[in-house]
Amino acid sequence: MGLRLKFNLVLLAVFVTGLGVTGYVSYELLHRNAREEVLRNAGVMMEAALSMRSYTVGQVRPNLAVDPDKFLPQSVPAFGATEIMTLLQKKYPDYAYKEATLNPTNPRNRAVEWENDIVRVFRGDPSQTEISGMRETPTGRSLYLARPLQIKDPACLSCHTSAEMAPASMVKIYGSSNGFGWKLNEVVGAQVVSVPMGLPIRNANRAFVTFMSSLTVVFAVLFVLLNMMLTALIVQPITQLSEAADQISRGKVDIAELPAKGKDEVSQLGQAFNRMRRSLEKAISLIDKG
User: Fold this and answer.
1) Can you give the pTM of this predicted structure?
2) Phi, psi of 249 (to 5 degrees)
């Protein structure tokens, strides 16, 4: 096995190892950044929904509550937040917001199976204030961000304690079977924002491929340059030295001296070989004269 082949095998092993480690680290980093970006987007949507709820409570509800016996859905914070997010969803159909409730007044807010699991976590652990995770959807992977819906305002119980206590107009709209029996400080549901992971993941994969391709091109260029340097500085001088030694071993000592300029190890080896050749030539000359 030649010196060049050994060098290239070692260099190739180093590259493959380095490429594997770098690929793993960069892949994980890019995908983690993509997830954090989506989580930030979900957080923005969640804050927008919370702002709409606050706006409804502070400015919409007081202006609509002229007749206490007349119920208007627009005065309900959950209704306002859901309506605004539904309008947003028309432009961004993959983004979703839902006030998933176990026993909702409005049927559209009823929690489905995976949302029920989130609500149960909040109900079982009051210290939980936020949950995020991944789930598969028909359009691909989606990240969800959820926060508990807890009854903190006693005024809410006027509509949700019992059908008899609730406004008759509300019962007429939604019926008397759902949305009652709520208790103060009880977690009745969860605000859930879902954001698609498709585009950020595609961007992360594209950046990963570009990075790894660039790294491979850089290695290929370095591989060629190092081989050229190896040939010029080591392989070629040693090959000349080997050929000269072979000729001397066959009795031909009147060969030209090897070029050995410089102070590196290969040059010093060439200089030592030239001295040896001259010494051998003088010794043979003395033997011939004797």
Assistant:
1) 0.67
2) -65, -20
